UniProtKB/TrEMBL annotation:
Name the record gives this protein: MCRS1 protein
Single annotated GO MF: G-quadruplex RNA binding
Alphabetized Gene3D superfamilies for the sequence: 2.60.200.20
Sequence intervals crossing the membrane: none
InterPro entries referenced in this protein's UniProt entry, alphabetically: FHA_dom (IPR000253), MCRS1 (IPR037912), SMAD_FHA_dom_sf (IPR008984)
Assigned GO CC terms: Ino80 complex; MLL1 complex; NSL complex
Gene Ontology biological-process entries: positive regulation of transcription by RNA polymerase II
Length: 76
């Protein structure tokens, strides 16, 4: 499991997106990438802003299957 978001002193994450732009626009826990038992990777958007997978928006509260070479973007 890999967590994307904004690190704080009380919230440790794996990929700190705040290093790339305005920190206040990034959720503490923007998204989580998980490996399922069948070998598939999924990304769950747990933030308010959409995460784009290959140009398609994944809205907050939803998840999307990642394919080989998928491009993951979080707009800030």
């Amino acid at each position: 499991q890999i967590t994307l978001g904004r690190a704080t002193k009380d919230n440790q994450i794996d990929v700190d997106l705040a290093l790339e732009g305005p920190a206040w626009k990034i959720s503490r826990k923007q998204g989580v990438i998980k490996l399922k038992n069948n070998g598939d990777f999924f990304i769950a958007n747990e933030g308010r802003r959409p995460i784009f997978i290959d140009g398609r928006p994944v809205l907050g509260g939803t998840k999307w299957k990642l394919c080989n070479n998928s491009v993951v973007e979080v707009q800030i």
